[in-house]
Amino acid sequence: MSNHPAGEISRMLHLLMDSKPILSDELKGLLSQLHQQLQQSPDGTTPVQVLHSLSQMWQQVQSKAPDLFQVVNAISHLNSYFLAIDRHLLACREGGAVPEGPPGTAGRLPPTSSGRRKGRGRSASCPAPAAGPGARQLVLLPFTSSVREKPAQAGNALRHPGEYPSSSGLRLVSQPADGASPLTTCPKQNGNEGAPPAVSPRGPEDGEWRLLPEQQSVVDDPLRENLLVSAVAGAGKTTTLVHIARARPRQSILYLCFDNAMARKAETMFPRNTQVSTLHALAYRECGWRYRQKLQEGRTLSLSTLREWMAGFPEFNGFAPEVQSSLTGILHESIRRFLQVPERSLTLLPPGNGNPSFLHRMWAMLTEKQEKYLRDCFYRWWEQAQDAASAAPISHDVYFKLWVSTCPRLMADLIVLDEAQDTNPLAIALLEWQKTPRVIIGDPHQSIYAWRGARNALDAFGHYRQKKLSTSFRFGPAVAELASGLLWVKKCEVRIHGGGPATVLLPPGEVRVGQTVICRSQAGVLEVAAQCIARRLPFDLPAALADYVLREIVPLYQFWYNGESDHERYRLFHSWDEYVDYCHDVGERDSLMRIRLIETRQQELRQVFAALREKSGDMPPGSGVWITTAHRAKGQEFDEVHLWDDFADPAGSPPPEDEEVNLLYMAVTRARHRLMLNAATWNWWQRTG
After folding, report:
1. Among 118, 379, 527, 637, which is 20 to 30 Å from 137 by CA?
2. Exposure string over 548-578, b if 16+ CB within 10 A, otherwise e
3. Helix (H, G, I), strand (E, B), or coil: what is residue 627?
4. What is the pLDDT of residues 632-652, one digit of tens each?
5. At what angle do helices 522-535 and 589-600 cross, to 10 degrees?
6. CA nearest 250: which of 166, 138, 339, 404?
7. How many helices and strands, by DSSP H and E, does the chain display?
8. What are phi and psi of 34, to 5 degrees?
9. What are phi and psi of 136, to 5 degrees?
């Protein structure tokens, strides 16, 4: 069996059964059926009639034992095999060689290996027609040291299943029966060779608009080399990527996005040849599942859990409480930064400019003895963090770094990274290691997460071929001019075109029902909530934002009220006045805004805290005031936006930092119909617009 290509797949199935003795009898039966079906291929070519049932049974295996696919490395090759089956069925259907399909499945193709999409098909009960011109066969060939060693077949090799050596010893080739070259583009549609029907991200009710020339240029690009696409806010980035996938139905595409919310939305948009995922989800399937219990039990990395872990060692308990807080804060920040970079050296780093003032004070007070203890503690934490059974607290970034350290290959014909501007250096390194062509797309002016280790990946990939999407479908010329002007503040000559609904710019005014108020800071959120309570306006905000604001502000309010605090952030300061003076000395803007809020609105804050605890984020749209922050508004759009007055002044002296300009740019580009500016931005625009 080992010399038989189908036997190699069968061997992997046996490996599955042997590696998981707790498999149910039903699942073992499904695997056995797969084994029997594969043995029906004596010459190494799987009959088309068998492919339907193979693909369907594989879906059943996946649905009945999802954890199975986090255990055995051979699974990735099996998934590639069954994805190739689906591509083969699609090619056969276009060539007229797909049988009708088993009874009860008329009108659909077998699902892809991701199980998300279903298409059209016929019944497998009918005999397959004789292979004619254009008909294709799926051939399992023993893997050689290089695809290039077989010149006659190299042009037909699919990079996704077989370009890289694998433990299965196989590569997969989707090969025309008559020896012709495989199809590489879409059939003609509307007279446009290789392109899908042209639509835009947002169309009129009676139909769809066509893609703009800039979008069509990206879709029509052969993408044999890496491509960097700079797209302004609302330019239809994801829609353009969807059309790239539709234009390449026989390529496997890996779409990588920023978070789970984006992934869930993208799954409803992309065709069946696209795997939608976040980078952390890929890492979780490979090794992160081992840490599932630790993450679910609340042993996630935070200041409090890290301090509890450090308290388990006698030497830590020998330090004074304020020193313990310093050590915990510095170690926490060093761990966070270590997990964002590809380097493996464990180095204690001084706090960056975006860190709270208490970290700067802790670093300044660190002695040589304490620094040596921290280095030992850092090594001890990393050693235990890799052990799923240890008590060391971890974050999801731990298993992501462990996975990236293995230099994994992302198996796809094309890799697409969306919202690339928020990618951290570790993820950038992972993508740079790949041999597969990549499309990197994002808006460099929406890079707003530098404070947590992200960097503008569009700069890191600046050596790629470059294209741009400069027209926004979200707003009209007024907001486009304003956004372009804001980018001039940081010396960026970018001309944005407004192709969406006409947006009206409004002068500063009061908050009103129906508006979305976008704030720069947590202090701004509390100020808006206080105004709404005072004026008896209904309001709501995301529940997660309300919880976060309470966790951050309530301890500081208690510090002001009591004059002292035992909170790990503030116990280094002996009085409220000392804390205020220190924040002024280091010039920490966010802390100063919180101080001003507490000192000027102390009588209202208790009522605001009580109101926030009751918010669930489920208020019907338009029935009240929706409060959010620029960071949480990312990727969203609203009919009427009210820009709160806690953003940086574009006309400030010295000029605001680039990330502050990015936050302001992103906030104003959330508006579709009406945008009410704050006083600073309105005055600046009246002078320069």
Report:
1. 118
2. ebbebbeebbebbeeeebeebbbbbbeebee
3. strand
4. 888 889 999 999 999 999 998
5. 30
6. 138
7. 27, 16
8. -60, -45
9. -130, 150
| Residue 203 clears pLDDT 60, i.e. is over it | no
pLDDT tens digits for range 354-407: 455 556 666 777 788 888 888 899 999 999 999 998 989 999 999 999 999 999
Token code pair at residue 386: 């890799």
Asked if residues 332 and 395 have their Cβ atoms less than 8 Å apart, the reply is no
565: which 2 tokens?
A: 């605090």
- Is the torsion defined by CA of 453, 488, 497, 198 positive or negative? negative
At residue 624, φ and ψ (nearest 5 deg) are -170, -160
CB 274 within 8 A of CB 255: yes
- Whether a cis peptide bond, with omega within 30° of 0, leads into 103 is no
How far is residue 324's CA from residue 342's CA, in Å, rounded to a whole number?
Answer: 29
Rounded distance, CA 297 to CA 133, Å? 59
Two tokens at 202? 């947002």
| CB within 8 Å of 570: residues ≥ 6 apart | 358, 555, 556, 559, 579
Nearest of 473, 471, 479 to residue 497 by alpha carbon: 471
- Asked if residue 176 lies in contact with residue 183, where contact means CB atoms within 8 angstroms, the answer is no
For residues 34 and 61, the answer to whether their CB atoms sit within 8 Å is yes
Task: Concatenate the DSSP letters of all residues of 556-611 into one string.
Answer: HHHHHHHS---STTTTT-SSHHHHHHHHHHHT-HHHHHHHHHHHHSHHHHHHHHHH
Residues 6+ apart with CB under 8 A from 589: none
Confirm if 671 and 483 have CB atoms less than 8 A apart: no
Residue 642 DSSP one-character state = E
Query: In this predicted structure, what is the pLDDT of residue 138?
Result: 34
What would the two tokens of residue 629 be? 């922050």
Tokens of 593: 């805004």
Measured CA distances, 271 to 119, 194, 245, 253 (Å):
10, 16, 7, 10
Q: CB 94: neighbour CB atoms within 10 A?
A: 17
C-alpha span between 268 and 275 (Å, rounded) = 12
How many other C-beta atoms can be found within 10 angstroms of the C-beta atom of residue 68? 17
CA 290 to CA 582: how far, in whole Å? 44
**Residues pairing with 364 in the sheet:** none
Give residue 594's identity as a one-letter amino acid code. R
Alpha helices in 20-138 (DSSP H): 25-38, 48-64, 74-95
What is this structure's pTM? 0.66
Report how far apart the first and last C-alpha atoms of the chain are (Å, whole number): 75
CB neighbour list of residue 315: distance below 8 Å, 6 or more residues apart: 373
